[in-house]
């Protein structure tokens, strides 16, 4: 990790829910997920010329194959910056760890500039919902307790709050209160960042910024009772982590990507 002046903002990009397949032709609802990721990466490269850190918050793969993770790594290698991965419900953490051997890709705690980034594993084997096991909660507590004067951003995959989509609620983070019970004791935690919901979310909760981000492939329709996708373009989130603890952020989409979904193809 290169040394950064702690007085300047840390420039971060989040990519999430790429759902890559071993097969380069693999699609979700007719959308080629490698192609959509390429377009999002190109959009980032046009708009964010000075990234310090790339955060990839789960469901990097759809089939948990070695080939899919290798493809994700290759498609994002052009940024040439420090990168961190965490698993989602479609991922296999052990495969990710094997791919990451000899690198810092799955490092849980990263200090950069005046900030500490904590990457947690909320995936449950064989399930769609999320849970932070005791070991993950202990990791979080330890990371926050030893953060010193650093501001903190905590990342994971499953949503810890109701985002107004009834069908998504049961597959969120089942022990969100345990998470909030820890972070609320540490005022240096400035934000929580997740994926999973394939749509943007930005909410303040007692001074804590709660953020979700569009997928780099298909998008879920906001405020939907039942499973529903939208034809919005894939996207990413940028963050500016300031030395005084301020967190600036926004979502951008791959405006040149033509979304054509096949609703007769096998479902998500």
From TrEMBL:
Keywords from the named record:
Hydrolase, Iron, Metal-binding
Q: Which Pfam families match?
A: Metallophos
Query: Which InterPro entries does the entry link to?
Result: Calcineurin-like_PHP (IPR004843), CNP_phosphodiesterase-III (IPR050884), GpdQ/CpdA-like (IPR026575), Metallo-depent_PP-like (IPR029052)
Pinpoint the Calcineurin-like phosphoesterase domain residues.
Answer: 11-200
What this protein is called in its record is 3',5'-cyclic-AMP phosphodiesterase
User: Which family does the similarity line name?
Assistant: Belongs to the cyclic nucleotide phosphodiesterase class-III family.
Q: Mind telling me which NCBIfam families this protein's record contains?
A: PRK11148.1
Q: What class of enzyme is it?
A: hydrolase
Q: What is its EC number?
A: 3.1.4.53
Q: Which GO terms describe its molecular function?
A: 3',5'-cyclic-AMP phosphodiesterase activity
- Hydrolase as a keyword of this entry, yes or no, is yes
